[in-house]
Design goal:
It is built from three helices and two strands. 10% of the residues are buried. With 78 residues, the protein is mainly α. The protein has one domain: Alpha-Beta Complex (Aspartate Aminotransferase, domain 1), CATH 3.90.1150.
């Protein structure tokens, strides 16, 4: 799943920090129907991020996570 690959590519943010990173389909929205998730545009690849931190370069870290997905996709293709 790309969402897990993304999370593994993060350096600053993590599931252990004071950032709240979730996979809504398996956490916050896991008890609602598939139709309700679809109506809310929540899928298996959706990622929720809430951050209350001192200033850090969050955008760069999120970009690293996305780059990690790209690298994994290239490795799979090669």
């Amino acid at each position: 799943m790309d969402a897990w690959v993304f999370l593994k590519g993060l350096e600053t943010l993590s599931l252990r920090m004071r950032a709240h990173i979730t996979l809504p389909a398996s956490t916050t929205h896991s008890r609602i129907s598939a139709d309700e998730c679809k109506a809310a545009d929540i899928g298996d690849e959706s990622i929720g991020v809430a951050v209350v931190l001192p200033p850090v370069d969050i955008i760069a870290d999120l970009a690293r996570g996305l780059d990690h997905i790209k690298k994994r996709a290239i490795e799979v293709l090669v």
